[in-house]
């Protein structure tokens, strides 16, 4: 009789243990299933900023049949342009005068009877300034130098003013915060639509910052953009 009772108690103990293990396994599976539920969203942040650097190349050309006279004319035109820039408030540190490139048409192995001048020179004076407004103001005024006989070579990419924005680190924290906030708003809406609650962040990654012109007419106004990708847990 005692053996029967002992066997029965042992069986009950084993059964209780199996029930307990089954409950724990079920609870673990439910927890794992809950952790597996997630939503991945993207948050966008955009900001318009004004360029803080302007690079203004001023290319000009000179032609002549006398090489010595050509160099004199290049030097004369350079002095006129530099004097104009200083009148507009630019310092020597902001102005760079490059060496001219000389083209000898006869040295190229052919002679075109329609070409009046043997030599041609092209030089560029560049302005690098953190005063963007000063550059924009001086640009149309330089056309007055046409009366001085200066021929500007403005038909190429090397005559285009470049506007840069170099203070990205100042606005980065604010934009990352805004992108993350926008991502959470999207995730919140998804959670409500799916009758769930939004949990903690599972994973987050920040995209690259991009800086582009706002439009072709205002290249001195930049649009800064960043997209953050965030994955949240979903809770039933």
The major β-sheet equals: 6 strands, antiparallel
Counted up, domains total 3
The Cα radius of gyration reads 36 Å
The total count of strands amounts to 10
Unreliable stretches: 4-34
Sum up the overall morphology in one term: elongated
CATH architecture annotation name of the largest domain: 2-Layer Sandwich
Please work out how many helical segments DSSP would assign.
Answer: 4
How much helix is in the residues? 25-40%
Instruction: Give the averaged pLDDT, no decimals.
Output: 85
CATH class placement of the largest domain: Alpha Beta
- Please give the alpha-carbon distance between the first and last residues: 52 Å
Alpha-beta classification: alpha+beta
Order of helices and strands: HEEHEEEHEEHEEE
CATH fold call of the largest domain = Alpha-Beta Plaits
Q: What features would you describe in this structure?
A:
The chain folds into three domains: 1-36; 38-51 and 165-236, Protein of unknown function (DUF541), domain 1 (Translation Initiation Factor IF3); 53-164, Alpha-Beta Plaits, CATH 3.30.70. Strands 2, 3, 4, 5, 6 and 7 form a six-stranded antiparallel β-sheet that branches. Helix content is 39%, strand content 33%. Residues 4-34 have low confidence and may be disordered. The longest helix has 35 residues, at 2-36. It is elongated, with a radius of gyration of 36 Å. A hairpin with a 7-residue loop joins strand 9 and strand 10 (221-235). It has 236 residues and is of the alpha+beta class.
